[in-house]
Amino acid sequence: MKRTHQFFAAASLAAALGVAGVPRAAAAAAEACPRIPVIFDTDIGDDIDDTWALGFLLKSPEFDLRLAVGDQGKNLYRARLLAKLLERAGRTNIPIGIGLDANASGSGRQAAWLGDYDLNRYPGKIYPDGVQAIIDTIMRSPEPVTLICVGPVPNIREALRREPRIARNARFVGMHGSLRLGYGGSAKPAPEYNVRADVNAFRKVLQAPWSVTITPLDTCGLVNLSGPLYQRMLKSKDPIARAIMENYRVWLGSRPETEKTFQTRSSTLFDTVGVYLGMREELVEIEKLPVKVNDKGMTLIDSGGRPVRAATKWKDMEAFKRLLVDRLTGGR
């Protein structure tokens, strides 16, 4: 798996440099690099950061997005949201999987943006059994697949139960945990939602024999946009950026105080860092740490835990924010 990770890193860095505007020869070399096969597993439609993460993934030429699946219940709501966003982005070539109807229920905060969107209108492929689609996509891939997971992972637990061999041809990259910092940079770690919501599912991820890389709250919990970078998003005419901002306005609600928030800053963009780790790592510090999960959903550094690659500190968070906004407002 080490050789696979080095391949991913080299290919993605070359591609990213091309997008950033280096000479044409380098950009051409970036285009020639093999793209990273990706499955995106997401609880999109709850926190707005999943929508930002999907946009970032779509705008990153390093990735070959082969499947997007909603996770953590509300399965038709999430599938419809993925479909409408992909249709708006002009990416209906991407298949959508309907995840398990597990755990979460009720309507979501982006339902008003969806309106009466009918999943049957989506021109691309819809897989009624999203878990099986995850298994089939991994098992049929001639090269290892990067599984980017930015929510609780009952789909992944079930996929591992049905077909444990998926771990031989995939690596797991997730937005999970809290190791030394909690929400908002608190010095006290917290039971992070994506783990706490389904502790047993994340334990299964840690038990599988694949490479596990995570962005815990220590890094992803510090990311938000304000000032000129946020204003670029607010004013962008890019279809993906506009869809994100439309959803953000709906997600915030219609109270007077939320309009000021909408005009000035984003919420915390946790999941965008999970997407970043799927392609690059040079802006964060990666530590290999033994991690265990207790019954309350705390991710503990413990000598008896599973070795995990964790992004525990930022080297340059401002550079990450610029990359994110550059991609969303004008990049591929």
Question: Care to describe what's here?
Answer:
44% of the residues lie in helices and 16% in strands. It is an alpha/beta fold. The chain has a single domain, classed as Ribonucleoside hydrolase-like (Inosine-uridine Nucleoside N-ribohydrolase, Chain A, Alpha-Beta Complex). It has a 10-stranded mixed beta sheet with strand order 4-3-2-1-5-6-7-10-8-9, with helices on both faces. Helix 3 (49-58) runs parallel beside helix 14 (270-277). The two termini are 29 Å apart.
Backbone structural class: alpha/beta
Q: Report the principal-axis shape.
A: globular
Number of strands: 10
- At the fold tier of CATH, the topology name is Inosine-uridine Nucleoside N-ribohydrolase, Chain A
Per CATH, the superfamily is Ribonucleoside hydrolase-like
Termini separation: 29 Å
How much of the polypeptide forms β-strand, as a percent range?
Answer: 15-25%
Give the ordered list of helices and strands. Answer: HHEHEHEHEHEHEHHEHHHHHEEEH
**Second rung of CATH, namely the architecture:** Alpha-Beta Complex
Largest sheet: 10 strands, mixed
Total helical elements: 15
Helix content: 40-55%
The first-level CATH class is given as: Alpha Beta
How are the strands of the biggest sheet laid out side by side? 4-3-2-1-5-6-7-10-8-9
Overall pLDDT metric? 91
Low-confidence stretches: 1-27
The total tally of domains equals 1
**What gyration radius follows from the Cα positions, in whole Å?**
18 Å
